[in-house]
Amino acid sequence: MSVSLTPTTSLTPTTKIRKGRNFVRRLPLGPTGALASLALLVSACAEDKPLNTFEPRGPKAQGIYDLMTPIWIIMIVVFVVVVGGTLVLTVIGRVKPEDYDENDLPKQVHGHTVAELAWTIAPAILLAGVSFPMVSAIWDLERDNKPGELDVMVIGQQWYWEYRYDVDGDGFFEDVDGDGELYGIEGDGDQDDKEWPLNLALDDDDLSVPNQLVIPAGQQVDLTLTSRDVVHSFWIPRLNGKRDTVPGRLTFWSIDADKPGEYNGACGEFCGLSHARMRMSVVALPEAEFDQWLKNQMSLSEVPEEPAQGQDPSPERAGYEVFASQCARCHVVNNSDSALQELYPKDFEADLLSGAAPDLTKFATRSVFAGAIFSQYSGIDPDDDNLDVTNYLQLAGTERLNEALLTRWIKNAPEEKAMYPEGRRGMPAFPGLSDTDVENLVAYLATLD
Amino acid sequence: MTTATAGVSVADSHDGNEAHRTSLNLSNMKVAMWLFLASECLLFGALISTYLLSKARFLTELLAGNPIVEASIDNPGLVREMQETGSVEPLFDIPFTSFSSFVLLMSSLAMVLAHKAVSEADYKNTRIWLATTALLGSIFIAGQIYEFTAFKEEGLSFTGSLLGSAFYTLTGFHGVHVSIGILMLLTLLVLSFKGKLNQDRAETVELVGLYWHFVDIVWVLIFTIVYLIP
Amino acid sequence: MSDTAVKASADVVDDAHDSHAHPTETQYWLVFLILAVITAFEVLWSYLGLSGPLLVVPLLAMMVVKFVIVAGVFMHLWFDMKMLNGKLFTLAFASGIVIALSVYTVVVATYEFNV
Amino acid sequence: MAIVERPLALPEGDLPEIENPLGAFSRPHKETGIKDWLTTVDHKKIGIMYGTASIFFMMIGGVAALLIRIQLATPDSNFLSADAYNQLYTMHGTVMIFLVVMPIGAAFANYLLPLQVGARDVAFPRINAFSFWCFFLGGLMLNTSWFLGGGPDGGWFNYAPNNGVAYSPSNGIDFWNVGLLITGIASLSGAINLITTVLNMRAPGMDLMKMPIFVWMTLVTQFLLLFAIPIITTAQVLLLMDRLFGANFFNVEQGADPLLWQHLFWIFGHPEVYLMILPAFGIVSEVIPAFARKPIFGYPFMVFSGVAIGFMGFGVWAHHMFVPGMGPLSVSAFAVATMFIAVPTGVKILNWVATLWGGKLILNTAMLFSIGLITQFTVGGLSGVSHALAPSDTQQTDTYYIVAHFHYVLFGGALFGFMAGFYFWWPKAFGYILNEAWGKWNFWVMVVGFNLTFGPMHILGLQGMPRRIHTYDAAMGFNLWNLVATIGSMILAVGVLLFVVNALVSLRDWKNAGRPNPGPDPWDARTIEWSIQSPAPEHNFDYDPQIVSVDDWWYQKYAEDETGRLRKVAHGADIAQPGNGEGVHLPAPSYWPILLAASLPLLGYGLIFSLWLTIPGGFLLVVSMFGWALEPADDLDLAHDHDDHDDHDDHDDQDDHESIVETASAEDTALVGDAPSPGDTA
Ligand code: HEA
Ligand code: HEA
Ligand code: CUA
Ligand SMILES: [Cu+2]
Hints:
Chain A has helices at 13-26, 33-43, 59-93, 113-141, 287-298, 315-327, 338-342, 392-395, 403-411, 413-416, 435-446, and strands spanning 150-157, 160-165, 207-210, 212-216, 220-227, 232-235, 242-245, 251-256, 261-266, 279-285, 368-369, 374-375. With 449 residues, chain A is an alpha+beta fold. Chain A is elongated. Chain D folds into two domains: 1-21 and 517-588 and 632-673, no CATH class; 41-516, Cytochrome c oxidase-like, subunit I domain (Cytochrome C Oxidase, Chain A), CATH 1.20.210.10. Chain D starts with 32 loop residues before the first helix and ends in a 10-residue tail after the last helix. Chains A and D meet through α2, α3, α4, β7 and β8 of A and α3, α8, α9, α10 and α11 of D. One heme-A binds next to α2, α3, α13 and α15 of chain D.
């Protein structure tokens, strides 16, 4: 299996370096030197540790980080006292067996009640002291859904993520019984609006984007999480801690990025074969760009023109036709072609146990694919300062498309990422496709922007 | 697992009346039996909680109209009734189950009288009461088998629905316990007829009795929690 | 020496048994009657068409009473407890019940207080 | 005190062949060689078998760990496939926990409990043998999954619904289920047996508060097993029903809730981690006073903190579930409860430190490992407290930071404690002392390897490396520390191997030196197992020891002089029991425990592959249960006249075989009185 592919993390290296320095500046001055060095050890060369939990980049993650500080201090103090004390006592107390005199016993101390009470009560007080800020932090971390904030539903699936945007603000579920109350935004909501199975119950106007979550920076984004198959865990270390996506349940969480940038994550709960290859990417855009992005995502993708009578179809058109015959069985492309529309929405479960394959309508606008393990763009120079989020939207373009990788993926996806197509989980290999077919498919996919 | 452990207990209960020195002045078997029963509390507790949670989830989905869950009970009329009452009560036949609960309760009385008889060297009554206990237990089991078939006909199957899985597993586990108890009672009865169950062995009867009463207690819980509070 | 020793030992054991007189046969029947009445009452209660705590609380209370009576009288817990060291296994059993009751109640509670 | 005379001794030498009236159901003779091990009901042999089997399984778990480390040494490695990796780490965790650490605890418990409470055997010797065989055969069965379609691949806690047939179609998880159900029977029957032994078979005078700390900690451990095993049993039965019989307990489509599994698993799982550490705590509580030449500091506090840990252990399980969305109220409650479990644990740690304080420390290998436990466990305990902080756990859970935590407590805690125990009690069990020079090497290589392996995992975890990933991307920045950890694991493996080497080298040297006897009390130790010969004679005690105080043996050797100082008044070797088993009546070996235990895996294979296969298993089960029940108390060849004192039939012979074997010399013990001395019995 070959996996030495372009890393996913190289989109905005400059931002990372900048943030790394910020972090050092932000280190609290109070803690002991030991704490500082622990933090430094962990965040050493911060710029190339995209999942580092010691580099919060949003208020939620920052809150967790701040809460940890006192417990690190306690730990280090206890460590020094207990472990240091033990070693010192060992060294001073040691007697060589040959020097040992069995009638010269040390003082036979059986115990000391005051000491016992002291070391029962002191840790208890210390821990009680930590408990208060901890409990308040637990409640702070719970999602506090305010109107106007962007609502996204996160759906975990073996082994990629799907993000559903509540664009029109009417929740993710239709108001089936028409009472104005909705299921599943907060708490359990109106149970009567629940529909089954979950993946078909979504409001039609909403937008589905796989693999890359795009959010407006500087603004809280509320997440409603669930899973189509097994338990996964949504985790963007720099933006917040984890929250599991549990099938049959809705869980709630929120993330918040201070600044534009790309933030990486990884599935945080073992979820079967390719758990290791179920990663995440969140891109925070400045508000205006986000709106632009959203508008683009909501539009239909183009259908390559049919060739004029007697002429060969363009590679894109040829690819489109292969796509319609081979791929549309699982993948959605939302466009104006009524022939394809007939297939959509269709019965995913017939093909896939997990119930869905990535929506490819705007495939080429994303910088990662296949569970965020692959970068779509080749030849990116990590030191290129122009590669900033601000031109995220311009990144999409054929010159940069990582054609070789995409070709390999289409030909034999399970080779790139262990999957279980025969168990109806994941994408099958297509040994039957000719090289030209695949070339054409790649050409077509590149137009989806 | 239960089978094996309980089987072992029968075998080892023979050393009930040993007269060796022990720290607690109790026989080892008696201490062991109480420990085993303590551990059974956790087992049945887990099964009862599983039932409660599964039933709650089943009902929530059913009341919300989940088509899969609706289809999981092979009886539209029953489903409608459950949805109307908001409970699984329509499934149960309370008078019938009350009767079998009563039978089990009565068997506990017979059990305790058997122990009393054997410790007073009244072997005739010992046999009578042991047989009565076993008989009452068997009636209970017969009732349960009848109930299972009736429920199955009503559309509740073990593999079909969450409720079915949870219900049959809980009551089935209890039924297996009762059956093992009956086997132990029959063994005692045989021993008694062979003249091997005399006063000195009263403790063996007491131990089987402990097990029997415990199984009865578990039914007290199940009857209330499962049947009366649906 | 064996004969005397055995006799003596038997006495010790007998003493241990006799020191906690078990109930008489009539008492057992009486207790059973009480249990039967409670059961009848339980069933009756479930037919009153009540719901919510009004249904559940008395039923649970009666269940506990039955539990305690069976364990206490039929399983001799009340008498054994008074016996020398009888508390020890009572304690072991009780801790089983207490742990079971508390962990499973908490599990169910975590579902109730989900938010 | 009831005394029954047992006039017959176990004769030595060849036994005459006598016709067996009971045919197949008669008990085997006292066997030799392999047959002896298969049929023994002696708690010491069973303890040794537990230990040996655990070390065998540790090799399997260790090789799995090394393969894991090789795979993770470099980024994007394809040494192992994703599938193989998942099976390996699942089996690594499962084997290490259920087939290594728990049974080593059982090994010490079996070997030492009767010796430390002054009993001849456990309460039910045949059940004891049955427990061992259930553990061993269940463990073997679990490991046959490697060859029968692949191991389990859901992680050691095997979350639903990933453990369902839909997501794990191979039979691996069925093996996991059935294998662990069988070892669960072992733990449960063992727990009942050992608790009964401790509660009911203590030597005269040994009140609860005079029991050695190891006995206390084992008692708590066994109670934890007693209450925790039925919970995982339930969970596994539910899963088994789902997987093999199509039930719906974890079928989300039917409305099931995956969190049910998590709750059931962790209500078991957390007590489980404490029952792995408490035996080790007990061991170092014996070793440290012995080599600090001081009594344990704060005996009652050591006892009560252990009991407190046991109880609190049942109230914190949901700290493994801070992220599945239980709701803030539950999370807060469990987070606070978890933090406070540091208090009783801290009491233990600090009492050991106080025992070291002012002691004259003899730093031999057992002592070094004990000090190793104090320091390494503290590191692991402290990281545990940092997970208890629920919000920070949302960053740490399922990362290598957790992996670091639990290896520090499990390896640095439990296994270091067990190593100390091996070095300490080896002469009692085998009659020779392990080589100190090799021992020191063993210790230092292990400490260095251990910290190199698992220390870097703290950093990796905080840098965001998720656990249970078969590969990671080079750009994630995990390369350096993973490589270090892999190198460390190789050193650690050498350290583990050094122990095995030491056992063999020491044995060879001992044989070459003409098998010198280390004497009953080579360490000048404190508890009564040192008052009998080494290796411990088959009948343990010649007569019941009379217990006057905690560390009773020590106070037989040391007494206060006029100035109030302790002085040596007797040498252990002089006052130890001579090891004369005359007049002692021991239970005969039995075939049935192993046969009964063997029927269970057979039934298990039947469940997994075809119900037809359950027929031989079921047949064996029934036969062995009958055999067990009908088996006479004794080897009939050695039959002695029982009817001198009871007038009922032979059936009663079974009375004594499961209970403590009687001593021939109860009057002797009475004569011995408060100051037992061996001369009285001679
Ligand atoms: C031997 C086994 C063992 C032991 C003893 C412990 C002990 C502790 N454990 Fe650990 N734990 C495991 C084995 C163990 N653990 C395993 C195997 C897992 C992972 C399971 C899996 O996911 O696969 C785990 C996971 C685990 C988690 C879940 C992490 C996660 O998955 O997100 C948590 C969370 O709270 C936790 C907490 C603790 C705490 C608070 C203690 C405390 O008992 C520690 C107390 C000790 C000390 C604190 C040190 C000494 C104290 C002092 C010197 C006093 C002064 C101290 C203070 C004032 C702080 N453990
Ligand atoms: C007591 C328990 C215990 C012990 C002792 C160990 C010991 C070791 N563990 Fe273990 N580990 C766990 C319990 C334990 N582990 C658990 C519970 C998990 C979680 C599983 C899960 O997530 O489900 C885990 C997970 C785990 C992981 C994480 C896997 C993952 O999440 O992807 C890693 C990775 O490095 C690891 C490494 C090691 C190493 C290197 C050792 C070393 O210490 C091993 C050293 C010992 C030896 C190497 C034995 C000596 C053998 C030889 C020298 C071989 C030669 C002999 C012959 C061929 C006969 N362990
Ligand atoms: Cu999804 Cu791990
Ligand atoms: Cu825990």
